[in-house]
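re: ur question from yesterday

yeah so i grabbed the chain u mentioned. its 195 aa long if i counted rite. heres the sequnce exactly as i have it in my notes:
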Amino acid sequence: MLNILGMIILIIIFLIIILLLIGIKISLNYIKNGSELKGCLKILIFNKIKVYSVDYPKSEDDDNKTDEEDEDRKQRDIKKIFKLAKPCFNDLIDFIKSAFNCMEIRKIQNHLIFGMDSYADTGKYIGIIWAVLAIADSMDKSIKLSAEPSFTGSRLDGYGENELKIYPLRLFVPLIRLLLKKDVRKLIKGVWDER
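ran it thru and got these structure tokens back, copy pasting raw so excuse formatting
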């Protein structure tokens, strides 16, 4: 009986490792028009099996937040968190680089509609946005970013379809290496205390 239980546990562990090797697909689609935001976040395994899905906006019950919760969020001491993050900045940059190596960009298509009250300011900032987007577009063939000016007043709208595939097993070693650093543990504890 004990051998059968051990085999079942080994098979479950083996299936989890295969799942982590194959990867997890994350899909985010959104449309922002005025103050209205609609979107959908999906997490899939084997590119088809939906594990988690959430649509925005949620039900109207979630919109009834109290003012006290908003005030508590504003009173958090961000300077303390920056002070804790400064010694481990290089470690965090190394972790982010290794995290990007564990991801595969399937599709990033975003479009931005940007406008300000002044035509000159709109033209100046849309030029900067186009320059940044041109650099980002040239990084990968699956990235398609665009922007258009809006001269009808102040406006920031957009829509997008984004798909990433993440291989969590490749991220395990860099995550352990990051968590073994004393400064990073202090940062995590500081952020946890500020919650």
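noticed a couple things. The longest strand covers residues 103-115. also The two ends are 47 Å apart (CA to CA).
anyway ttyl
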